[in-house]
Structures
1.
Amino acid sequence: MRNLKHHPVEEFTDYARIPTTEVGVSADSHHYVLPHKYDADANNPNPEKNNCVDSLRFIHLDKDGKYTPGVTDEQLLEVLINRTEYFQRMVPCPENEITLNCLKAALRVKLYRTELRQKANVEGTHIKH
């Protein structure tokens, strides 16, 4: 069990509950289950209900070279960039701009790492570049 930070705004904590359960073949951060108090069917916050779950599963390469499908770090960063750009258009603030710069920098670094691994012919393996 890995506990990630709750939302810093107390009244949102029950609706954006982030304690996660890591599941999968190992405890290597490949799959997160994110319970929250949000009734997705009614599209309405429901403090009485806590059985809603979202799942975030990352792509995983086993030691034998077999892939388990999932989201890549780069895709998740792109989602966060898109979401933050939306918020910045709606309610601009310096903190969103800083967040965007950091997320975009992280994405550039991840893409650069992939480029280096491809050049070294080790992308898709457990071999260091």
2.
Amino acid sequence: MQILLTGGAGFIGSHLATALKADGHYVFVYDSLHYGPTPPRFDDKSQFILGDIRDIEKIEQILRENKIDLMINLAAFSSIDDVLKDEIQSRDVNVKAVARIASLCANYEIKLIQFSSAAVYGNYYQMPVRESVPKHPISLYGMQKLEAENWIRANMPSNKLMFKILRIFNVFGPGQINPGVITKMIETKKRGEPFYLNGEGEQTRDYIYVKDVCRAVQIIINRWDDPYNTYNVGNGRSYKAGNSPIPYRPLSLKDLAEIAGIDDIRYKPELEYDIKYSCSDNSAITKLGYRPSKAPEHFIRLSLHA
């Protein structure tokens, strides 16, 4: 299969390009290098193209000249802080560009996998969260990702565009370009420095290993027969406090800091756009054979002893 992977030089994209090539696909990695400053290596199963997701003429040329079968869009302003700093440019990338590439895929009859985010749910009151619940994003980033989803659904006739939307929860793993909470904890512990948490540190997150995200895509690519077109991709596991299982209680940030062995935990004011609780209901994608492989606490312990 010929695959165009936009945003393919970033943290998730670089892992995904490797996984797709291992499956025998030819991958065109298209990236502006906004988050990935170094072009990825390419071989006889891949090609790197420097470009911006907003350059719709260049993308159309790639689709037309290379007989692309599938487009996977990871390109995004993925940092909440970056979105807040430049609302206009971030919306151009996170919303308008998505609408344009969806139209292109429909016109050329190319399948589309769009990466979305758990940020679309906001502070939903019941965990784990299913794909069908009402969406009330509390961050501008979450609002933009939801608007992009709605553009794909509302404006693309189902008989012209075959698409899948993956709502990704909090990703961790090696090679993270903009370090997430888990990576920061590991680095802080190794340096023996204090670690700062927003609020009281009781926020919960559903952490998903980057290679499990890749595995979800590898499954979805071969399951266009499934009637669902939107899937949560998280860990979705319950957490045990002592020997007593607490259903669907993911680790809090404070729990993770303690697992990392950080003795000096300090607190900053809570952020208004910070989601309080997050846990994925993976039922839809689990039916297709998806199983997460690595829990965050295991990754922390392995990294600290590496």
